[in-house]
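Researcher: Let's run the pair from yesterday's discussion. Sequence first, then tokens, for each.
Model: Starting with the first of the pair.
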Amino acid sequence: MNKIYIPSLLFIFTCFAGIAQTQGTDSLQTNGIHEIAEVVVTGTRHKSDVRHLSQTVTVVDRARIENTLQPSLMPILTEQIPGLFVTSRGVMGYGISGGAAGNISLRGLSGGTARLMVMIDGHPQYAGIFGHPISDAYQSFLAERVEVLRGPASVLYGSNAMGGVINIVTRQMPSDGVSTNVRAGYGSYNTLETEATNRIRKGRFSSMISGSYNRTDGHRSDMGFEQYGGYAKLGYEINNSWKLRGDVNVTHFNASYPGPVSAPLLDGDQRITRGMTSVAVENNYEKSSGALSFFYNWGDHWINDGYTPSAGEGPQDSRFLSHDNMMGISLYQSAQFFRGNRITVGFDWFRYGGRAWNEYVSGEKAGSTTDLVDKEEDELAGYIDLRQDFGSWLSLNAGIRADHHSRVGLEWVPQAGVAFHLPRTAELKASVSKGFRYPILREMYMFPPQNPDLQPESMWNYEIAFSQYLLNGRFNYGVNLFYIDGKNLIQTLPNPNGSGMLNQNSGKIENAGIEVQAAWRIDSRWSVDANYSYLHMENPVVAAPEHKLYAGANFTYNRWNVSTGLQYIAGLYTQTSPVVTEDFVLWNLRASFRVTRWLDLWARGENLLAQEYEINAGYPMPRATVMAGFNLNF
């Protein structure tokens, strides 16, 4: 970025923020009555009534997160989001590298191959060398809510948002005061969960500080997991329209993986530290809003790949080490110039990369190192997103992104959609959108299949959705139909010009499916919800189930809160060559009791049907597990 570029963006940002402050209201009117609907930021950058969007955004709010009593966000999203599935291998912890879990897939597109983006407050969170999110870093104490956009979000977020976006919106104090929460639990396999959070709001100042410690021995030998996490966020409102905020999040975990049961592994150990920080200045006028932010995330990895004695192997001579980073500057401004209009203009600059090397601790090369990769690459992009409402019955959406990569060149990314606001609080939506991702450094430069000549992957997503609120908003349901057509997927295949294997742009995606959601607040005590997804894949992939069904119920009475859920998984590929699939049913039960104003007792049981199943091939999941503990609130 040259010396002219940043001042130019600041000038545009400041000028655009002052436009259209006196225009008419941006609300959706039905029969002259303003209807309050869910407001989201993912999919538009600015706060928007979800009914205006032509794509599907599902929100998991703080109440739902707290009721599940989980330290990690990933199990919660697996239950609540149709079409989304996260792999697991044990009672706690996902790990990375060999035998790792935590791979997030959405509609058959995998975050493990950098086709799904996780964000914190709109900032991408992925390993700079490997390109994928790190599931162990996304803990429940971070989130006020989680917004999941199902389908490509590359127009707003660029590469890696090819299949969708998970945006973690961090917590904040809604009004003046001080709130402190301490949570602790203990259970099966010597598992311990702890966290403490303090939130303060006083006048224009706000803060949040959280810390956690989690550990388990695991349900198999050599499967221990230990995690330390900390998060701090500070905010200051300069005036009614401008505010500053900054945050930092660090998590460290030690993980061991025992290998598949058929070939137990020794010394499979990992020491991982991940961190992120961001600083932002935000404006919010009546008819204009935007932000300028800088973010930086990084990781240090130490890995011993271990050895398999039954195969005649001995201890590894080397350890894998890496330091990766990703930084960026994001600028966007949204404004309404006349009634029913909304235009968002944005610019992004990303730099990602790092260094990976082997460090030899024994053998002939003891004391030496071998570099695997030491690279950085840049993206520079501009985008525009338009929405126009026509009366109270129609919203049109369109957007385009011009994304320039320092090695690949220019990529154009369009999307368009329409939302019909029908009588009886019904919505009919249709959209077509392009998603893409650039090859990651690992695919181009690391390990024998590497190929520096790889080109971007791309796909088109076609979607129709219908939703409706009934019974004065107490019952709602939605149905989505989608079709995905992708090309140039990177696969490891025999080298056509020589021996060995080579990463090549030869794969295709042809996925189609249906997703259904429903929720019914029966009365002040009872509520039920369910979701189902069916996924058809012409080219099946691991960790994307054909059928996924969840049905849950929640009961609240006086001091009691009890929730339960059944999850049915069928046609889950754990291997594709040879084909191995799994079918299973999981029953979970959670309960809490408020002893006093400041003390809650809680208990959680998982897989209470004691199902035998695998998600990662060769890694059987634990049978029934239980946890119990307390919450302190003061």
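Model: Moving on to the second of the pair.
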Amino acid sequence: MKRMPAKKLRFALAGNQNSGKTTLFNQLTGSNQHVGNFPGVTVERKEGKIKGHAYAEVVDLPGIYSLSPYTKEEIVTRDYLIDAKPDGIINIIDATNIERNLYLSLQLIELGMPTVLALNMMDEMRANGNTVDIEGLSTCLGVPVVPIVASKNEGIHELVDTAIETAENHTLPTVEDFCSGPVHRCIHGVAHLIEDHADRVGVPRRFAATKLVEGDKPMAELLRLSQNEQEAIDHMVLEMERELGTDREAALADMRYQFIEEVVAQTVVKSGKSRERSRSVAADHLLTHKYLAFPIFLGIMMLVFWLTFGVIGQPLSDLLGEGVDFLNGAVSGGLTALEVNPVVRSLVVDGIITGVGTVVSFIPIIVTLFFFLSLLEDSGYMARVAFVMDKPLRRLGLSGRSIVPMLLGFGCTVPATMATRTLSSERDRRMTILLTPFMSCSAKLPIYAAFTAAFFPKSAPFIMMLLYLIGIFVGILIALFLKHLPFFRGQPIPFVMELPNYRIPSLRSVGMLLWDKARDFLQRAFTVIFVATIIIWFLQSFDPRLNPTSSEDASILATLARFIAPIFLPLGFGFWQAAVALIAGFMAKEAVVSTLAVLAGTTVDALPLALGEMFSPLAAFSFLLFTLLYTPCVAAIATVKRELGSGVQAGLVAFAQCALAWLVACLVYQVGSLIVS
């Protein structure tokens, strides 16, 4: 029987980006968290209980390369480690790239906390004919080292047992000093000078001294040094720089890497070249080619859309739609046979089953699309997309780091907006927040699928790709406009990223992502959309005096919507049903399709025919453009308000998006009408 500790244990999980940190977090906690293979996927720290150890929690911190406070990720990680003082640190490193990963490890060890090193991707290390002396590495670093393969759940139990034992016994690193010569004298001189201040704020002396030698301003502010103390430190640093002939940051970096080289030389045997790296470099000659990279990306996305809407997703969606129609007919027949009140029967059949069922029928399309996107992401290709897009983004006045939240925007605007917290510059962050909504989110897919099936069935993949490209193009135009405004003038922050090796996507990771998307979609279908369809049904079924009405034109809904519908006349859909659907879209974009289905009183299979009676092909495309560009949803606006810190600014953003959507849709419809006539 396992002994329960006297208190709960909390571990911090830290490591470089692309080291397998989030994969390990999932293995430790059983969390249904998505695993990505491009930098920046871990935006905020995430927590979970370690499986089989309810008293032990692990906090997944953002992927970083050092504890210097240059990026938001580094600040989040550093602040948590210093302020929360976890019971232990699990530092995951990539065994195929030990030299780079150990740079962060040395800084974590300097914190003087119980630390365990998780040496990940040992399968790749062995496959390349390379070996690591685990005991020797542990001796050199002064902390336990456990070899693991996080993606295959190898070594995880040993890692957990070692981490818990280290934390319970409060076993601290036995090696504290990695420096020599002038750097050694400087760090130890500063540590002696500030020991009282470091003890007062609870920061390890060695760590605080190293940061002060680096010129770390937040650390100096935290310690509240006197002017004389700061001058004494500056003098010691100046002496070190003169003796070494280099600046303070380079001196510390050289010190760490010199120590790392000695450790690696003693403990790592490299008898073969990394096959994964060789394959990745060969593939990148083509996939990141100066001229071919972007056409290849467009080609891959066209293939994804063709498979989703032409081969796999749409046929499965049609099949599910037939099932919903069968359920609708069976329930309707059963309620009629039971002589249930016609109003109640209408609520269940015309309101709930038709509205919710219409949205649910699009799940296969959502899952299929994200299956292919997950393969691209987990394989490492999306990191190449970020690399390729860095230069074009800089011309628009954005940092290449902005590509991460913008890519997330194709899934959902809410986490994409939150992901802008990783951007170092407030200018870049605000600009990216304004552009992210133009990346078409997955909630709009049911609208696209319904309208393309009704009006453009033979060219559905092309129309889908066109809509996504139009959203990107409009975002580019907005960026070009914004960068000339006084508030957005200036240079974007430089973007540095590492391209991970190409890897075969983990089926578990892909499966978890698909489950998350399907679960989120179903939750929205049976909550927000469920409520919306009932409200729409009620307003459609009763007149202003709350009497049941057989004429939609006399309903409460029609009466209210007639005041709004004229706004959309220049766009080609100035009838009240379209206006109501767009208003419902503010709650959730999927509600646009369910609302149209309820208002049309049709089955899922007959929805394309019903839409064909409401819209002309040109008006349908205008409607698609409007739904593409107008405000994503209430949740997205609430997130924008929280990130910008102003309800007024969020309101202006929503209004500007609606106005822009109206202008673009109006322009396309009016010009198209002239061409057609």
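Researcher: Give me one sentence on the second I can quote.
Model: Confidence is low (pLDDT under 50) at residues 32-43.
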